[in-house]
Specification:
Blueprint: H1 9-38, H2 43-55, E1 58-59, H3 60-66, H4 71-83, E2 87-91, E3 99-103, H5 105-125, H6 131-146
Antiparallel strand pairs: 1-3, 2-3
């Protein structure tokens, strides 16, 4: 749906692009989240498992930065993953105020099982774009994402 905003052509075009980008993102997120939900995970929980699986143990603070979550939110995400025995906390030896988060054997096994399902879904979602379009879309997203205020 295009905007009915009656500003300048530049303003209307930018607003229209923004609306389409947000709607596409929310639609894509909804479809991907439903797949993760069937596996008992939120997108944030999946993000933590992914980071730990690929990078190894990290501090809670660093995990939050990697998946773009606040301190309070990452604590809740880790609490919920800990209840499922997918991660465990260990006090940092260098600074006892910090926890290092580790993926458990159960967490590694679970992630290795669900990642191919997630990846297949992502590949299918982006199959509406050609290879060339996907590369161009990546480039454009990076431009927008790295823009300084």
């Amino acid at each position: 749906m295009a905007t009915n905003f009656k500003g300048t052509e530049k303003e209307a075009r930018a607003l229209d692009v923004y609306i389409k980008l947000i709607r596409a993102s929310e639609s894509l997120s909804s479809r991907i989240n439903s797949i993760l939900d069937k596996k008992g995970l939120t997108i944030s929980q999946f993000g933590v498992l992914d980071v730990l699986y690929n990078l190894g143990p990290l501090s809670q603070k660093d995990l939050g930065k990697k998946i773009l979550r606040s301190g309070g939110n990452i604590t809740m995400v880790i609490d919920n993953l800990e209840k499922q025995s997918f991660v465990e906390r260990e006090r940092s030896q260098e600074d006892r105020r910090f926890f290092i988060i580790h993926l458990t054997k159960k967490g590694k096994k679970f992630f290795a099982k669900i990642f191919p399902i997630f990846l297949d879904s992502v590949v299918k979602e982006f199959s509406v774009l050609s290879n060339k379009e996907q590369i161009e879309f990546q480039r454009m997203c990076k431009l927008i994402g790295l823009k300084e205020s």
